[in-house]
Amino acid sequence: WCDDNLEWLRKTYGKENIVSAVLHLDETTPHIHATLVPIVNTERKKKKSEAQVKKNYRKKNPNASRLSADDVMTRVKLKEYQDMYALAMSKYGLQRGIEGSEARHISTSQYYRELFTKNEDLKKNIDNLLEKQKNTEKKLSEVKSETSKEKFKNAKAEMGANLMDGVNSLFGGSKVKQQQAEIEELQSENALLKDENRSLKTELQTVQREHEKITDKLRDELRKIYDLFPNLRELLSIERMCRLVGFSEDLIQRILTGDKVGFKGYLYSAEYKRKFSTEHSMAQIEPKPNKPGKLRLAVDGVDIIEWFRLKYREFQRSIGIDWTDRNVGRGRKLKC
Predict the structure, then answer these.
(1) Residues 131 and 216 in one domain
(2) How much is the pLDDT for 335?
(3) What share of the chain is helix, strand, coil (3-state, %, to 5)?
(4) 211: in domain
């Protein structure tokens, strides 16, 4: 696939014009970032305004190489590139987009709003699977407990039978016969218990297989969920952060939709083990700078961790403490 992409770039733009081609695997679909220099060997087309003004210019070689993105990246050329690339990559299952389609990209806030709705449905499905798994584990534990009790009864009956056999060899009489009858009754009960034990073992194996199937299905579902929604882990992490700092359920839902949410009150910092107040702040989910595919919870335009640090410095200054950096490597000097 990489070789075919490089070959297409060489044929389309010229081998000498390709500066670099880098394979990226940071998204679900592998892709290549190619850098090229738009060098062409055709004569520059004059604008209408230039054609109407007669001026004497030094004639240039019409076949001389020149730099021109306008010739390489025209609307007609871009359409040709899409057709050519779709044809070259068709053997890998790539399909050309619908020509003339009026489809438009959705906004970031709309994308997160739809993603949040899907996440809510997925969370319900996960909760149902976890509840089913919990019930299965409970039933498995009950079956194991019953099996242990039956094993103890079997051992007790066999021990009694061995003891009575020893007594019968030493003594005779009706009392011994009576005890022998009791032993036979116990042995009969023991046989029934063995049958029941075998049945319980079979049921236990069935429950274990069912438990393994449910567990495997749950793992597969989670893998599919994370594959379909790469940002789900990030959103779940941000949701936990919102609950930890003290956002209400209503504010959390609004934040997870991707909108800017205004709020006032107190937020708790686990790092500083205290609450910080604000009269008016804005919270929003936004991409992490220089980290494609990663999200962060921002308050007033900065990461919430940095927001807490700024608030803590404000608190220190309010009580007369001012930290200043001096002599890096030799600690900080405290001004009071």
Answers:
(1) yes
(2) 40
(3) 60, 15, 25
(4) yes
| Cα–Cα distance for residue pair 255/287, rounded to 1 Å | 14
User: Residues 283, 203: one domain?
Assistant: no
As a whole number of angstroms, the distance between CA 193 and CA 172 comes to 30
Residues 188 and 245 occupy one common structural domain: no
* Distance from C-alpha of 112 to C-alpha of 110, rounded to nearest angstrom: 5
Tokens describing residue 155: 């051992």
Instruction: Determine, yes or no, domain membership for 100.
Output: no
Mean pLDDT, residues 196-219 taken together: 86
Residues 119 and 192 occupy one common structural domain: yes
Quote the pLDDT of residue 120. Answer: 77
Model confidence at 240, pLDDT cuts 50, 70, 90, reads very high
CATH number at residue 40: 3.30.930.30
User: Residues in the chain, how many?
Assistant: 336
In a domain, 97, yes or no: no
CA distance 320 to 118: 50
Total domains in the chain come to 3
Let me know: does 281 contact 263? Beta carbons within 8 Å: yes
Please choose, from the candidates 222, 242, 245, 217, the residue with its C-alpha nearest in 3D space to the C-alpha of residue 232.
222
Asked if 138 contacts 207 with a C-beta cutoff of 8 angstroms, the reply is no
Query: What angle do helix axes 232-245 and 249-256 make, rounded to 10 degrees?
Result: 150
Segment 268-326, tens digit of pLDDT? 999 999 999 999 999 999 998 888 888 999 999 999 999 999 999 999 988 888 665 44
Q: Are residues 180 and 200 in the same domain?
A: yes
For the chain, list the strands marked E by DSSP.
18-24, 31-36, 39-40, 66-67, 261-269, 274-287, 295-299, 302-303, 322-325, 332-335
Coil, strand or helix at 163: helix
Grade residue 182 by pLDDT with cuts at 50, 70 and 90: confident
Of 119, 132, 114, the C-alpha closest to 258 is 114
Q: Is residue 287 part of a domain?
A: yes
Q: What's the CA gap between 109 and 285, in Å, rounded? A: 10
Final residue in a domain of this structure, among 41, 57, 92: 92
Domain that residue 161 falls in: 110-225
Asked if 115 and 220 sit in the same domain, the reply is yes
